[in-house]
Design a protein that fits this description.
mainly beta; 54% strand; 5 strands
Length: 76
Amino acid sequence: FLQLFPRSNERSAVRWPVTFWRDGEEHSGFIRDLSRGGFFVRTDVPLPVGARIEVSFEIPGEPVERNVVAEAIAAP
């Protein structure tokens, strides 16, 4: 059990495919929960808390691919 910090931003349930890289290896998953301050990624790849990943995804209807660096926090 890991305590998550309270999230004050409204969250939207989505299911967008995502590609991410950790230590140079490519993986995939889904963004499943989104807000102005962040998102949760569902993946079968075990990530330790604090792991840094590079994430690439598209927002439906937007022509630009997004690329961000994220940090694994815990499963909600």
